């Protein structure tokens, strides 16, 4: 039997969510002249790029993009960034990912910044599923979605076929 997919967000709705999240991020950082958005690859980085573009459009604030790659299967934090983490010193960082489920990925992402003195660290997710195993919450959320643990959320952010499905 094929997986039944239910469309949760279409391309237009995703764009609206990102715009709203951008305004919320700006409101939370009105006094800042620069922000860093750190996206966890793959879809988290795509979300970060879109937030960066939209934030610059609505606010004019300088937004630096950082790419974080994580080894989620490791029992120790193994992460790489495309710019030095030290560049975030005394700055506001927004950590972005596509879906917040157990909190594990965001917890690893937060670990990247543990030894760096930041002005503020916030999290942004497109979909918040609320099945926490780790004490992680989203500061900026596109959609809070009540699901059962067996359901899976697929986020597709490729530009042409942007969509969020529940299966």
From TrEMBL:
InterPro entries hit by this protein: PRTase-like, PRTase_dom, PyrR_bifunctional
SUPFAM superfamilies tied to this protein: PRTase-like
CDD domains for this protein: PRTases_typeI
Lineage: Bacteria, Pseudomonadati, Bacteroidota, Sphingobacteriia, Sphingobacteriales
UniProt cross-references to PANTHER family, sorted A to Z: BIFUNCTIONAL PROTEIN PYRR (PTHR11608:SF0)
GO MF terms, alphabetically ordered: glycosyltransferase activity
Keyword Glycosyltransferase: yes
Name assigned to this protein: Phosphoribosyltransferase family protein
The entry's keywords: Glycosyltransferase, Transferase
Domain of life: Bacteria
């Amino acid at each position: 039997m094929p997986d039944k997919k239910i469309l949760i967000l279409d391309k237009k709705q995703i764009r609206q969510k990102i715009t709203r999240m951008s305004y919320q991020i700006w409101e939370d950082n009105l006094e800042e002249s620069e922000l860093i958005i750190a996206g966890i690859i793959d879809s988290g980085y795509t979300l970060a790029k879109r937030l960066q573009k939209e934030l610059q459009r609505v606010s004019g604030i300088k937004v630096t993009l950082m790419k974080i790659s994580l080894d989620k299967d490791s029992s120790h934090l193994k992460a790489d960034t495309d710019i030095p983490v030290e560049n975030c010193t005394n700055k506001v960082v927004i950590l972005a990912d596509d879906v917040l489920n157990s909190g594990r990925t965001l917890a690893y992402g937060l670990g990247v910044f543990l030894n760096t003195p930041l002005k503020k660290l916030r999290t942004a997710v497109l979909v918040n599923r609320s099945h926490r195993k780790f004490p992680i919450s989203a500061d900026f959320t596109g959609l809070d979605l009540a699901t059962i643990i067996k359901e899976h959320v697929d986020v597709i952010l490729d530009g042409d076929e942007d969509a969020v499905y529940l299966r």
